[in-house]
Amino acid sequence: MTTQIAIIAFMLIYLVCLIVFLKVFKIAMLVFSKVLTERMYFLACTKKGKALSKKDFETILQVNEKLYAFIATQSCRGYCYSICFGMCKALKKGSIEFIAIKKFNMDKDGKDDEKAFTMHVLYINNGWAFDTYSSRQYPVERLHEIYKAKVYKVFDYDSICDKSYDEFRDEQEPELAKWCIINDCFMSWKET
Length: 192
Hints:
192 residues, alpha+beta, elongated
């Protein structure tokens, strides 16, 4: 009987300590798990491909730490215009490609919205693309297939090297807006 009481008391003490530990360190554990997952994804997925080499990532880190942090933590989703522009400028090579990608919105009946597109920008190098939405690298043609893309324009490094992001945006926005209207495509110039 004494042994059973001791075991139950030990289990209760252990449970109380565990609950206190979890309450005290909950935020720290969540932050740690988020950082760990981001790092694992970055190493296992983001860095794999031929658009960006290990040296390219080092260059981005040296030239623009904020840009590197956005890419390394998968925070670049929704900022494709400025992220890809910044990558091209930092690396001084490659190009940025504006594409209309098909939205896959389902209506009440489970049917795709066949008409709606949204503008997306890819960083292109060596026939491969870095996609800010997935934070992954793909062969360009494969990504076009995945997104059912309509290509608007490609801008190589030489055509943007002397421009700031704001200058580039102001120069390109009117023509892109017209193209988007004709092609039933949404666009939004966000900045990081």
